[in-house]
């Protein structure tokens, strides 16, 4: 495994160092790297107005660990990641697999350090959008929900931008359409800029339709919440542990834990647990396990309750789902 230590930013000051770390070179808006490391497209674009984009449609030919330690803390990174293969967000005391956890969208404040490991053979289609924090105001200037809270949202002493989520249907369509285009020239540049604006706008609309959680998150809190998500996934076959237990495990008060967990995942811990229990149930049914066996395996209260939760989550009953396999 090779290790790449780098920074990102809402300007292009990081590009030369990033390319050098990958043993590559810059030609126009592309970063060309040796075949031994990877192939495909790595394309960057300064949109002006404090927004920089990094578009990746590539295959990795070696194991790589990217360590992101930003030299500036004035931006937010929107990371849309459609990796097909083994890729993990990782730190000293946590990791999660992008595919396993369903997180293909991360919004991370530049004050936080992260690392990303990807295995050889993995294919990645990703769009990274780096926006200066002050620019977020312009996206929200016509929305009263945001304007009411903007001073608090932008105050780094009170709030940290951090969220792990799943790409919406609209955003997925935008990315897939972008992937069909030839990566060169002014037409692609305009399409890339348009896609970035639509993706961020789509996400802000989702935020408006949900509660905006304003809370400071430091590196320790960040790692603790991820660690709890990992713990919940490792115990998905059991019953949901109490909020008191997992709050104590994360060294937080119950109120702080609930607020930070919802802020980072967009859902309470018990809903997070149930959502992934249902995803596991779907996976087991696909592996030809019977409905009764799945009910027992995942410790649902009873058969009827499992059917109710499955249908509510997926829109079809387990029996209908099995028949359609």
Number of domains: 2
> What level of helicity do the residues show?
40-55%
Number of strands: 13
Main sheet summary = 6 strands, antiparallel
Distance separating the two termini = 39 Å
User: For the record, what CATH class of the largest domain applies?
Assistant: Mainly Beta
- Give the count of helical stretches: 13
CATH names the topology of the largest domain as Jelly Rolls
Uncertain residue ranges: 91-96
CATH architecture of the largest domain: Sandwich
**Percentage beta strand:** 15-25%
Average residue-wise pLDDT: 83
Structural class by helix and strand composition: alpha+beta
Shape, please?
globular
Order of helices and strands: EHEEEEEEEEHEEEHHEHHHHHHHHH
CATH superfamily of the largest domain: Jelly Rolls
* Gyration radius, in Å: 21 Å
Biggest sheet: strand arrangement: 4-5-12-7-10-13
Structure description:
The protein is of the alpha+beta class. It has two domains: about 1-210, Jelly Rolls; about 220-325, Arc Repressor Mutant, subunit A (Orthogonal Bundle). It has 13 helices and 13 strands. It has helices spanning about 15-20, 100, 135-140, 145-155, 170-180, 185-210, 220-235, 245-250, 255-265, 270-285, 290-295, 305-315, 320-325; strands at about 1-5, 25, 30, 40-50, 50-60, 65-70, 75-80, 85-90, 95, 105-110, 115-120, 125-130, 160-165. Strands 4-5-12-7-10-13 form a six-stranded antiparallel sheet. A five-stranded mixed sheet has the order 1-6-11-8-9. A hairpin with a 2-residue loop joins β8 and β9 (about 95). α5 (about 170-180) runs antiparallel to α6 and α8 crosses α9. Residues about 90-95 have low confidence and may be disordered.
């Amino acid at each position: 495994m090779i290790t790449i230590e780098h920074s990102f930013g809402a300007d292009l000051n990081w590009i030369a160092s990033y390319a050098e770390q990958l043993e590559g070179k810059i030609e126009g808006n592309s970063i060309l790297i040796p075949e031994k490391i990877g192939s495909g497209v790595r394309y960057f674009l300064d949109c002006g107005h404090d927004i920089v984009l990094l578009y990746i449609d590539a295959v990795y030919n070696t194991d790589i660990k990217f360590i992101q330690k930003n030299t500036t803390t004035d931006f937010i990174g929107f990371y849309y990641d459609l990796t097909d293969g083994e890729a993990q967000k990782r730190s000293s005391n946590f990791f999660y697999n992008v595919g396993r956890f369903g997180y293909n969208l991360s919004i991370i404040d530049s004050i936080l350090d992260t690392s990303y490991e990807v295995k050889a053979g993995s294919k990645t289609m990703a769009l990274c959008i780096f926006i200066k924090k002050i620019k977020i105001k312009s996206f929200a200037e016509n929305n009263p929900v945001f304007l009411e809270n903007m001073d608090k949202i932008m105050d780094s002493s009170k709030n940290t931008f951090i969220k792990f989520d799943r790409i919406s249907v609209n955003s997925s369509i935008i990315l897939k359409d972008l992937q069909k285009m030839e990566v060169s020239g002014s037409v692609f540049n305009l399409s890339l800029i348009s896609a970035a604006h639509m993706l961020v706008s789509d996400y802000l609309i989702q935020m408006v339709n949900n509660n905006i959680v304003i809370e400071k998150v430091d590196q320790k809190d960040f790692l603790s919440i991820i660690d709890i998500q990992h713990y919940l996934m490792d115990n998905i076959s059991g019953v949901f542990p109490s909020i008191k237990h997992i709050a104590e495990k994360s060294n937080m008060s119950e109120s702080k834990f609930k607020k930070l967990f919802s802020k980072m995942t967009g859902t309470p811990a018990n809903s997070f647990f149930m959502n992934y229990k249902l995803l596991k149930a779907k996976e087991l049914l696909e592996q030809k396990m019977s409905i009764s066996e799945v009910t027992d395996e995942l410790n649902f209260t009873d058969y009827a309750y499992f059917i109710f939760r499955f249908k509510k989550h997926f829109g079809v009953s387990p029996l209908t789902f099995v028949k359609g396999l």
